[in-house]
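ARCHIVE CARD
Drawer: 12
Card no.: 0347
Subject: one protein chain, sequence and derived structure
Cross-reference: see card 0346
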Amino acid sequence: MMNLLQNFFNNKQDQIINVDQTRKDLILAQAVVLIYVVAADSTIDAQEWLEIEKILSDTYNLPREKVEIIQKNALESFENANDIHQFCYRIKQDLSREERIAFVEELFMASISDGEISFAEHKAVWKVCHLLGIETQERVKIKHKILGKE
C-alpha cells in the first residue's frame, strides 16, 4: 500500500503545482482527509465539494484549475485507499500542532457546509483528530467554535 501511495504521489502530483514533493504530498493528504470526512455520510454534495475547493484554494493560494486537479486526484486516492492512516500520518508529520488544529477547524467547516454535521461525519472527524494527536477536549472546543457555541 505504501508503494502504491508513493507511486501515486510521484507520478500524478507533477501535474498539480510547482512546489516541492513534501508540499504536494501534504496538499493531497489534506484533500483526501477532507473528502473522507464529508463522504462519511455516504454523500458528497455540491456545497461540500465547493467548501473543499475553497479550503484548498485559500490555504495554499491556488487557482481553481489546480484545485480541481487536486480534488480529482484526491477523490481517486480516497476511493483506492484502504484507510486514511497514511494520509493522517503525512499531515501529522508535516504540520505543527497549531496548523493541525486549524485543519480540524476546516474539517468541521467542510462537514457543516451542507447545513448539518451528520453523526457519521462527526465520527470521521473524531477519528481524524485521534490520528492527528488532537485531544477530545480540543476537538469539542473547535466544534463549538465552528457551530457558534463558544
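Annotation on reverse: Helices lie at 2-12, 21-38, 46-60, 64-80, 85-94, 97-112, 119-132, 136-147. Residues 61 and 81 are 27 Å apart (CA to CA).
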